[in-house]
Amino acid sequence: MAHGHATRVGTGAEQARGWQATARKYALLPLRIFLGVTFIYAGLDKLTDSAFFHATGTGSIGELMHGVRDSSAVPALVDLALKSPAGFGYAIAFGELAVGIGTLLGLFGRLAALGGALISLSLWLTVSWQTTPYYYGNDLAYLMAWLPLVLAGTPLLSADALLASRRRLRTP
């Protein structure tokens, strides 16, 4: 009887190890889905907002940049955006869209995550820099959320994984 009990404990331990391995394997997937969907939404939200791309006016990128210029960590970055507010707005919107799609599909996952991290870093240093305490600002949290995907890429359930498996099949 004791022998049978030991077998069940071993099986339970093996099952626990299997579950832990599966959890580790898929741990970044919820983060990837969240960031991908969020950045797609953010890009589409900007592209469909008629006021966003204007140089002046309520809800415009120009008004936002003028409002944060003196409180940003890098005023020169804001000045650069103010040279062409609409161009900067479109760059951010299409950048967010590309990053979101790349992350969600897992296509060039590390590059997409790096793009997301750079967008979040630029927004933290400009738009949300003055937020106090700092942990109330969301851009720093997004920056930190992108870093695991920059390091790990998108190796599961992704276009990157599909392309890698195709390359392995063609390699003798």
Short description:
The chain is an all-alpha fold and 172 residues long. The protein has 8 helices and no strands. Helix content is 73%, strand content 0%.
**Euclidean distance between termini CA atoms:** 52 Å
Largest sheet: none
* Count of individual helical segments: 8
Q: How much helix is in the residues? A: over 70%
Order of helices and strands: HHHHHHHH
Structural class: mainly alpha
In terms of DSSP E residues, the strand content is under 5%
Low-confidence residue ranges: none
Count of beta strands: 0
- What overall form do the CA principal axes indicate? elongated
Q: What value does the Rg take, in angstroms?
A: 22 Å
Overall pLDDT? 91
Describe this structure in words.
Helices cover 73% and strands 0% of the residues. The protein is mainly alpha-helical. α3 (61-68) runs antiparallel to α4, α5 (85-105) runs antiparallel to α6 and α6 packs antiparallel against α7 (138-152). The mean pLDDT is 91.
